[in-house]
Amino acid sequence: MNTAQFTPAGTLTAEDLGRIHLIGVGGVGMSGLARLFLTRGLPVSGSELREWPSLAGMRALGGTVHMTHEPSNLDGVDTVVYSSAIPQDHVEMVEARRRGLRVLHRSEALAAAMTGRRTVAIAGTHGKTTTTSMVTMVLQQAGADPSFVIGGEISEVGSGAHHGTGEHFVVEADESDRSFLIYRPYVSVITNIEADHLNTYGDLATLEAAFAEFARLTDPDGFIVTCADDPGGRRLAQTLRAEGRRVHTYGEAADADLRLSEVVSSAQGVRYLAEIDARSLGEFRLPVPGRHMGLNSASAVLTAYLLGLPVEAAEAALAAFPGVRRRFERKGVADGVLVYDEYAYHPTSMTLAMRTLREVAGEGRLLVVFQPYRLYRTRDLQAEIAAALGLADELVLLEVFGPGELRQPGEGSAALVEAVPLPADRKVFVGSWEDAPVEVARRARPGDVVVTMGAPPISLLGDELLAALSARAGDAGGSAATAG
């Protein structure tokens, strides 16, 4: 997607948008934006075809939800907001242009909401949702009351967006369609850079150039944070420092500005020691497992430190970090089987997630229910995705979720399942959604861990798996419990 389609952040404010309508408002990114506008006191409507969990919250805040897509939904509307998932020939997009309404990409509407705030923008191939959540909670713990929009909901908080009274605006910056290039951050955090979204960029070099362009948009009075352990992040830091830009790094690498040591991850969580400029910052603990989670949290610690916030605020916030929905989210347990949900769909994040789940499983087996996200990614990274799935003990594979994509012969999950290095009896491609719970109930044993992983729709499958496992045990729900 060409950046010329997006208008750089300027003087347009959220209040200038008038009555706002969001197409596809149930998606996590769009529902977060709707919540932000509603808590800011702006009139908001949206259209959807599926009853996503976020819609109830939108209605409770006074938003209007149309469960159809049709021209009349735009009556009385001043600004129409769409995401990259919405085609230009969508009936409401066509009607908005016919009426001469203001039409903004989600990132443009979000940029308008940031006007007048110091933006902390978190980008990267992996970990940006979790990192954005951690930075937000650290600022909240410090009493800064930031505004924020996150590509996921902070568990127990039940929200991925908030209009705060403080000067900071924390945002997850999406590189998938180049829209992160319209932001003008005060702080830019880049967690890592790996090959992804090559339908937009073509190759890794072009993707890395876009991240460099994003970093160069950072306010000269602000700063840039990158990961010293990530090859892409390290190359970026070297390039930017050579240009005289203010860059700070974190990681276990000996030359990281914020250095982690004695990192320990277990089923109970992760802990590490941190130091900066040879000065100890003490020990940090998270109640969620995964070495990569510790690395994500280090970027939040470094960002808070450079903003002049108390280190104690970071320590307290991370110790209470509840996780993010769809990021290692415990859904419940039924008939002795523990069920999680995880958003990972890139092979690197899939591998990290499954290694962490193995820590939780202990002596039990790991059963993965995976729905690939996007045909182009599944095709281009088939070998890597297959290798990651090979870490499972059992695999149930659904068809690729690729809205708007045209499937070519030989593409899709039928080809992927053949490439997964598991015995034939330990992997299966199911052609319909309804078959997945049946397969899980047939394969899972007490003591196993089951994870639904991949594209957004699969997050809805966890409850069905729990129900099937409960029914298998002859208990219509008594053995299942939601995570708490």
UniProtKB/TrEMBL annotation:
> InterPro entries under this entry?
Mur-like_cat_sf, Mur_ligase_C, Mur_ligase_C_dom_sf, Mur_ligase_cen, Mur_ligase_N, MurCDEF_pg_biosynth, UDP-N-AcMur_Ala_ligase_MurC
Q: What Enzyme Commission number(s) apply to this enzyme?
A: 6.3.2.8
Q: Does the keyword Secreted apply?
A: no
Location of this chain's protein in the cell: Cytoplasm
Q: Where primarily located?
A: cytoplasm
Report a single Gene Ontology molecular function.
ATP binding
What sort of enzyme, by top EC class, is this?
Answer: ligase
UniProt domain Mur ligase N-terminal catalytic: residue ranges:
19-116
Q: Which pathway does it take part in?
A: Cell wall biogenesis; peptidoglycan biosynthesis
Annotated residues for binding of ATP: G124, T125, H126, G127, K128, T129, T130
Domain Mur ligase central intervals: 122-303
Q: Decide whether keyword Membrane is in the record.
A: no
Residue ranges the record marks as coiled coil = none
Instruction: Identify the HAMAP family for this entry.
Output: MurC (MF_00046)
UniProt similarity note: Belongs to the MurCDEF family.
In terms of NCBIfam families, this protein maps to: murC
Per its record, how is this protein called by name? UDP-N-acetylmuramate--L-alanine ligase
**This protein's encoding gene:** murC
